[in-house]
Amino acid sequence: MQRTVAIVVFPGVQSLDVTGPLDVFCEANSFLAPKDRYGLEVIGVEHGAMSCSNGLSLNAHRHFGQALQAYDLLLVAGGPQLPSMSFGAAFDAWLRDACARARRFGSICNGAFLLARAGLLEGRIVTTHWNDAAALTQMCPSTRVEADRLYIQDGKLCTSAGVTAGIDLSLFLLAQDHGPDVALNVAKRLVVFTQRSGGQSQFSPFLVPHAEPTSAVAKVQSYVLANLNGDLTIADLATAANMSQRNFSRVFAREAKVTPAQFVERARVDAARVMLESSRAPLKTVAYQCGFRDAQHMRSVFNRRLGVTPQQFRLNFGAMV
């Protein structure tokens, strides 16, 4: 029986959220026997043509009210304005029923918000675009949002990070269905990696302090950013905050949502990212100026936090000078 992959679209949808995954499964069909090929379907929340966020016009194969089959994979695409959009109780009810019927379901980018509104993310582990992770966490407190992952499978629920990460998720699911060789052949045809290095944190903006600007914690955060190549021990930071070490650690974690050590490490990584993007300074110079013990220590921290080495990060994002 043919597997059908369906993607839900709406006015303002991000076109790459739709075309990326569809192209993965379309290209896969050229490597598969006829009985194993995917059927592809686009489901609209409205009748007729819908404009994507880039102005491209999409015509869905059918309206959601007509989409009553059990799909092998049902995905909801994302879009720049989607977190604030809702398509009504009838759509939410259809989405719940359609996901229950599907063998697998999920979202691309911030399409996770439509799943959340339909009550499909309670108690689940998901990812979404890094820029929307905090808002999704606020909307669904019981949901664990892992903002650094390119994709996550939690049972039959599959979610991806921002935009092109939908291709990563689709290749992963294709490999589940038909093995890694088929996924590799499709990746070669699309000129993408079957397994990208690192998570989406390497693409996210640099660290912004989370504490209230007038708080003692905010002052300590500013102190950290101004003294990255210092020791920055808990004792140093507690002194800067005029608190005991124990009280400082507790208050900082509560207000900043990270421990002091985590903040210091993030700040050093972000400072190194700026230098790697904007200069050709040797790695040992970058490491010293940003407070790492040496270049090897910086490499270890980059690998753990971003999934890439400093040299790989510079190759990916450095200025062409």
What's the SSE blueprint?
Layout: E1 3-9, H1 15-29, E2 38-44, E3 49-51, E4 57-59, E5 62-63, E6 73-76, H2 88-101, E7 104-107, H3 112-117, E8 125-126, H4 133-139, E9 144-145, E10 151-154, E11 157-160, H5 165-178, H6 180-190, H7 216-226, H8 234-241, H9 245-256, H10 260-278, H11 283-289, H12 295-306, H13 310-317
3D architecture notes:
With 321 residues, the chain is α/β, with parallel strands linked by helices. The chain folds into two domains: 3-203, Class I glutamine amidotransferase (GATase) domain (Rossmann fold, 3-Layer(aba) Sandwich), CATH 3.40.50.880; 216-317, Orthogonal Bundle (Arc Repressor Mutant, subunit A), CATH 1.10.10.60. 45% of the residues lie in helices and 13% in strands. It is built from 13 helices and eleven strands. The protein has helices at 15-29, 88-101, 112-117, 133-139, 165-178, 180-190, 216-226, 234-241, 245-256, 260-278, 283-289, 295-306, 310-317, and strands spanning 3-9, 38-44, 49-51, 57-59, 62-63, 73-76, 104-107, 125-126, 144-145, 151-154, 157-160. Strands 5-2-1-6-7-11-10 form a seven-stranded mixed beta sheet, with helices on both faces. β10 and β11 (157-160) form a beta hairpin. The protein is globular.
Summed up, what is this model?
This protein has 321 residues and is α/β, with parallel strands linked by helices.
